[in-house]
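User: Design a sequence. Structure:
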């Protein structure tokens, strides 16, 4: 493992534990060259899921793309990166359990919205506005009314 700060190859594991995703190990490492600490995550290699895009193209499932979408939706919101990584792990696990080789983007988008709705309603509306391609303010208002009706 290379240190993300000084790029040295020598480090030691300071702490190791199961991560929020049950198929993942979180390790705290300390660089022996510069002394700084950083976190790594290890997971067992899985058969590669492919994503079926709206236009029919296929692409490899990317945890990073799902995380990037969540980060964008949660920008300036009180949601930790650890919580978002946990959501990505849960979504990936659900995809692997429900689909053998290929998963539709619609399923991934709906899972993201389900988790965001429980985590942060503002982030949920942000994500939904892009995912569902809201055309105007009335689309936002309709979604907010639906959210409020579910709460009450």
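Assistant: Done.
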């Amino acid at each position: 493992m290379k240190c993300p700060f000084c790029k040295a190859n020598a480090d030691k594991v300071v702490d190791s534990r199961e991560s929020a995703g049950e198929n993942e190990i979180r390790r705290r490492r300390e660089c022996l060259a510069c002394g700084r600490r950083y976190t790594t995550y290890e997971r067992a290699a899985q058969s590669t899921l492919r994503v079926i895009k709206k236009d029919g193209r296929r692409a490899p499932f990317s945890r990073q793309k799902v995380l990037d979408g969540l980060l964008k939706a949660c920008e300036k919101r009180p949601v930790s990166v650890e919580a978002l990584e946990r959501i990505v792990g849960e979504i990936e696990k659900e995809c692997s359990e429900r689909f053998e080789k290929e998963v539709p983007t619609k399923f991934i988008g709906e899972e993201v919205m389900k988790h965001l709705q429980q985590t942060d309603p503002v982030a949920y509306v942000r994500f939904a506005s892009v995912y569902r391609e809201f055309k105007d303010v009335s689309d936002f208002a309709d979604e907010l009314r639906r959210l409020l009706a579910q709460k009450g």
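Residues 1-45 form one domain. The helical segments are 63-73, 81-98, 105-119, 121-131, 137-151.
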